[in-house]
Write a structure and sequence with these properties.
Elements: E1 4-11, H1 17-26, E2 40-42, E3 45-48, E4 51-59, H2 70-75, E5 87-91, H3 97-113
Parallel strand pairs: 1-4, 1-5
Antiparallel strand pairs: 2-4, 3-4
């Protein structure tokens, strides 16, 4: 049986979330940035310790807040699948204090609602 692990990539606008996902998926990096408008889902498989693991990597646009319940999650189409993620990759720009504050607040909301 193969288990799918859901991974959500979150952060403020322009911090490089999509660039990190593209680097992992395709081993490529682009100097140009196109803002993510909707959730993007990638479905790679990885081999670790001799076992195949399926991943569902979800690249999210910036969200105003982490959904407190399933109803709120499904009311906003870009947040779908967020609460059921197994792991969160929180991305910020080390040169932008606001992006760090954004991710710090999001982390606290995740801890309070999960």
């Amino acid at each position: 049986m193969v288990t799918t692990f859901k991974i959500a990539v979150l952060g403020a606008q322009g911090v490089g979330k999509s660039a990190i996902v593209r680097q992992f998926m395709y081993n490529e990096f682009s100097e140009t940035s196109v803002p993510t408008k909707t959730r993007r889902v990638f479905l790679p498989a990885v081999v670790m310790n001799g076992h195949v693991h399926e991943l569902q990597i979800m690249d999210f646009p910036p969200i105003s807040s982490f959904p407190v319940n399933t109803l709120q999650e499904w009311a906003d189409s870009c947040c779908r699948g967020l609460r059921s993620a197994h792991a969160y990759i929180l991305v910020y720009d080390i040169c932008c204090f606001d992006s760090f504050e954004y991710i710090k607040t999001l982390r606290q909301q995740i801890l309070e609602t999960r």
